[in-house]
Amino acid sequence: MRNADRFDLADLDISTIDLPASGERSLRDSVVPALALRVRSSGSRSWVVLRTKDGKTVRETLGDAVSVPLASARLMASGPVVAKSPIKEITEPDERLFKPAATVADMLPRFLTFGANGRWKPSTGRQMESVGRTCILPLLGDRKLQDITPQDVACWHRDVTAQTSSARMALSTLSGLMLFAEDHGVRPAGSNPCRGLRKKAKGHRGRHLPPGSVKRLWAALDRLHGRMPDYCDAVRLLLLTGARRSEVLGLQWDLIAGPRAVLEDSKSGPRTIWLNAPAREILDARRAASASLYVFPSPRIDGPLTAMDAPWRAILKEAGLSGMRLHDLRHHFASVAVSNGIDIRLVGQLLGHRDIDSTLGYAHLATGALTKSASRVSSIIDRSMNAGATPKPRHQCQKPTSRSRRALAAAVASSGEARHA
What we know:
Blueprint: E1 4-7, E2 24-29, E3 35-40, E4 45-53, E5 56-64, H1 70-78, H2 104-116, H3 122-140, H4 150-163, H5 167-183, H6 211-224, H7 229-241, H8 245-249, E6 256-257, E7 260-263, E8 271-274, H9 277-288, H10 309-319, H11 328-339, H12 344-351, H13 367-385, H14 394-397, H15 402-420
Parallel strand pairs: 1-2
Antiparallel strand pairs: 2-3, 3-4, 4-5, 6-7, 7-8
């Protein structure tokens, strides 16, 4: 196809692409090379797949690019078989596509289309499309949805876990697909074969970092500040605020007002990061020396820093620590808050959790605060129960004076000497 330029189609706004003066133009996807966006002078925009067969390029149309999300088009284009008729947006179950013998490859694009219509955040949709294309379709794409068993999923998950760090997202995506299949009658209700497999790692939730480790980490940040000031300040803010890495690295100055930073979007939607005095001191020092829109600007592109894996390893090495994840700083913040008696709901607001269930993983750390609260409640109940009782004689309730304690000690000593004699 002529005029087939290559782009990451996720970076383009399909509705605003300039139309050719006449004829058509195709934009090839750099992520899935077989996929292209075809725009015509008439205004139509559609997904097409380009295949080479017998030395010739064969083009097949997938559907309207405005109706079918890019994630779904990429999945359909990456498969070995492409539908021979245009695929339209699905709003109601399609009997031809959602037949009992439907395969994972048949239903996954429709599942992603369903979620892309406001159900998921765009970043979540892109992650699900990626793990679907790389982790689900190659191993399970030709399997019938109704035939997949918990044992099949367990074997698949074991293989995926050994190959990629995205196994949790892959499992969540497959689980959602199975529920989608139940909703459309392809699987019996309540038969999700992913049930029972752990989707979230629980081992790091609610863990205190040892005080010595925190001190060593902070000292290492002071020593390395001259070499990597941006990354050291970012780690300090993570430890002081409990914010997520992406939230700190993506901070913009105009979103910070006094003791808070108001984020228009985060993993859990709009939320506020509350800034204590040490965090504000760090930001004030950076603002005085900054000419960028971002608190942590990237030295290579017009945008913020996006990754800090290598600097974090260097910081841990300087501190003499190992096995500590950057996300553990967030868990430590929450652990300190809960174990010092801060209400679990307030901790959830500080962390930006969408619901209380996300915060309850730290509830077991509130032992000290709960013990004090239980003692206080029991004391109140005890006083109320004994309010009408006959008061004890004052001499029995009086606290022993220093003189009486000395006299008692002397009497005990004399009694002991007498028994010994």
